[in-house]
Amino acid sequence: MEVTEIVDLSLPVDDSTVVYPGDPRPRVHVHSTVARDGFNLLRLELGSQTGTHVDAPYHFDDTGARIDEVDLRRFAGPPVVVDATGMPPRGRITPAHLAPVRDRLRPGVVVLLRTGWTRHYGTPTWFAHPFLDAAACRELLAAGVRTIGVDAVNLDETPDDDHPGEGYPCHHLVAAVDGIIAENLTDLDRVEALVDPLVCLFPVRLSGADGAPVRAVAMSLRVGAGSGS
């Protein structure tokens, strides 16, 4: 088996990484250098939801699985990309957006909500992203989908002084079925160009955590190439 193409779906993590309002800001410090210590080493300070990351059910449910307890199969699968581009700020991703891919929704797939909102990363508009409507979330879960990702900072609406939000309904719905949410993805427009793609969202194995950063990728695999089979 050979990886013939791979697409990075992750945002970089450094001191300038944008985080959800109120979350700890990442800090990257030089701890050791070759000149002084014989090797390079960084000291990292960051929240469990920093950058491109996944949420465990425990994030919104005290009785839910922690990130190191989740079945690893939740973090990989064939992608189904939902086109939600062209949305206005705080637009709802509704069941109508699911219609073109409804026949592909089934257990084991990774649903990726492509809003294109990464173009606003680093600006105030980043937090006025489109979000998944609870009715559409229920439809995905009823079809057996257990992993949902989005190229925005939040699957639900991010509240502010003028928009109080709705209490994170999709986070609660997904947690209730032991599902996984991936946020802060990027370059989802490149996924569908891959041949027979596989998406991988494997998190850092943080003990007892609500979530963890990931290096999210999509790849094309060719069976038999270079394997002697």
TrEMBL record:
Keywords: Hydrolase. Its EC number is 3.5.-.-. GO terms for molecular function: hydrolase activity. It comes from Aquipuribacter nitratireducens. This is Cyclase family protein. It is an enzyme of class 3 (hydrolase). It holds the Pfam family Cyclase. It comes from the Bacteria.
